[in-house]
Design brief:
Strand 4 and strand 5 form a beta hairpin. The protein has a ten-stranded mixed beta sheet with strand order 4-5-6-1-7-8-9-10-13-14, with helices on both faces. The chain has a two-stranded antiparallel ribbon with strand order 2-3. The longest helix is centred in the N-terminal third of the chain and has 15 residues. The protein has about 500 residues and is of the alpha/beta class. Helix 13 runs antiparallel to helix 14.
């Protein structure tokens, strides 16, 4: 069946219902792929069940107002259409009904069984039926839901994935509220995103991660607030957060994903380099997601659910210098989906993929064009304010700022503990590199090469970490050396020319 045939069938079906369908009625397609929400008990435990509309929804007043179960045309593949019975919800507080049909996949799967072919089938089903329905709700297993939720395509209609921790047919379940909430939002609010609804909250699909295998609050969005939430009185949509397509282009789908050539490796303190090397040598591997800890460290501090990968700390800076692309606040699931999506695009070069992994395509990450340093809230003393202003000027390469009478400030620290000499190198992470002449002037004015900032870093360490070999040489000429507390961080850097110049020996010790 061609697109023209589909459109004609749609018009015929719409004409037949025109006299019976209220204008205050939304039409939603529920795509049932499987998962706990539609399961039933068996001697072998829970198994996917057929006839979900009849057994799970029709008997429930909140899903069925008792109106006619008229049939609606649904495209089941590129050449086959089918008339499926529909149900209608009671009128909402917005004076609107939601009429819906359930399209069950031929093979119902649980989370462990769905694969790239299943994800492609979901996308194709939405594409074929895009002009027939106002919105789409996908019933999906919770364990693999996030790979689908992290889709990277523009869409002008709501697509909401949902599921449950307990089946609809169980007496105590979360399936009823999850599905009804999804239908209400999909049928009432034009939110043009791929979303996930769970436990009264609507999340951006590419921002969520699963946090519990049993709690009804199974998902969280650590670095981005919910797009909407349902309370006892109303549905609150946070429209200022909604991501909308910003170009004139019809809805299309990308059916291929190179998920088979992408891997994920969790980095932990003490991991052996040969372990990472073994993964990198896997035949056919095109991309590797590294789950680091702290702010992108390997190794380093503790891991947390919130936060972002940042090049502020020296382990993260070394990873970036080695070609690792910072993921910012991407979830692991979104990173996998995004990388496999980009690898499947035929015209992208490695440079294109590298660049786009750090850019927001569909609101999946918070872009960081540069590191921003701000004054702490509250009043700064005059001396600290002057030092901070001097540090910013140094970062911008202003030689004039250090030629004046600044001797009284040379050994004082700003709110981060950075002396002017430390600022020369601490600020280089957000510039093309500090001026060697500024460093020379500060040294000639008597700036100490041994004072450390609040992070415990000396000017020599910061210069070496930034790869500024001229600065390292000048600091060493002025008597600078690495502090004993910094030696552990330089243990693996002994073969780097800049670190050798800074005095790091092959055995990880310091050369005086």
């Amino acid at each position: 069946m061609t697109q023209t045939d589909i459109s004609q069938a749609y018009l015929r079906n719409s004409a037949e219902l025109a006299n019976e369908t209220s204008s205050a009625e939304a039409r939603v397609l529920i795509i049932m792929t499987g998962g706990t929400i539609c399961m039933k008990s068996s001697s072998n435990g829970f198994v996917p069940a057929r006839g979900f509309l009849k057994s799970g929804l029709a008997p429930r007043p909140s899903f069925n107002d008792g109106s006619d179960s008229r049939c609606i045309l649904v495209m089941v593949d590129d050449h086959t259409s089918r008339l499926l019975p529909s149900l209608r919800t009671p009128s909402s507080r917005y004076k609107k009904h939601v009429r819906y049909v359930v399209l069950e996949f031929d093979e119902l799967l649980d989370s462990s069984s769905i694969n790239a072919d299943g994800w492609t089938e979901i996308a194709q089903t939405i594409y074929r039926n895009y002009t027939f329905f106002d919105a789409f709700v996908v019933l999906h297993g919770t364990d693999s839901m996030l790979i689908d939720a992290a889709e990277f395509r523009d869409i002008w209609k709501p697509v909401i994935l949902t599921g449950s921790q307990a089946p609809m047919l169980e007496l105590q379940n979360d399936a009823t509220d999850n599905l009804l909430g999804s239908l209400i939002i999909a049928g009432h609010f034009m939110i043009p995103e791929v979303c996930l609804f769970f436990n009264y909250k609507l999340f951006r699909g590419n921002r969520v991660t699963k946090v519990s295998a049993s709690d009804f609050a199974a998902f969280a969005s650590p670095n981005f607030p919910p797009l909407a939430d349902i309370t006892s009185s109303k549905t609150n949509v946070h429209w200022e957060l909604i991501h909308r397509p910003t170009h004139i282009k019809a809805f299309s789908i990308q059916t291929s994903r190179d998920i088979g050539h992408v891997a994920c490796l969790r980095i932990f303190p003490g991991i052996r380099p040969e372990m990472v090397d073994a993964v990198l040598k896997v035949d056919g591997l095109k991309g590797l997601i590294l789950e680091t800890f702290g702010a992108g460290n390997a190794p380093g501090g503790p891991d947390g659910m919130t936060g972002t990968v940042s090049p502020l700390y020296e382990p993260a800076m070394k990873l970036e210098q080695a070609g690792v692309v910072p993921g910012h606040d991407l979830t692991t699931e979104a990173a996998l989906a995004k990388l496999s999506y980009l690898l499947a695009l035929p015209d992208l070069t490695v440079e294109d993929i590298t660049r786009q992994m750090s850019e927001s395509l569909r609101g999946e990450l918070t872009e960081q064009t540069r590191i921003a340093f701000e004054h702490p809230k509250g009043h700064l003393s005059t001396s600290v304010a002057e030092l901070t202003a001097l540090g910013y000027a140094i970062a911008q390469g202003s030689l004039d700022c250090v030629k004046g009478n600044i001797e009284r400030m040379l050994n004082e620290g700003d709110y981060f503990g950075n002396t002017p000499l430390v600022s020369v190198h601490a600020m280089c992470i957000m510039t093309t590199g500090p001026s060697i002449e500024i460093l020379r002037v500060l040294l000639l004015k008597g700036a100490s090469v041994h004072l450390r900032n609040k992070a415990g870093r000396t000017p020599l360490f910061l210069a070496a970490n930034a790869g500024l070999i001229e600065h390292v040489s000048l600091l060493r000429q002025s008597g600078a050396h690495l502090h004993a507390d910094e030696m552990e961080s330089t243990r693996l850097q002994s073969r780097d020319r800049t670190w050798r110049a800074a005095g790091v020996s092959f055995d990880g010790g310091a050369e005086m």
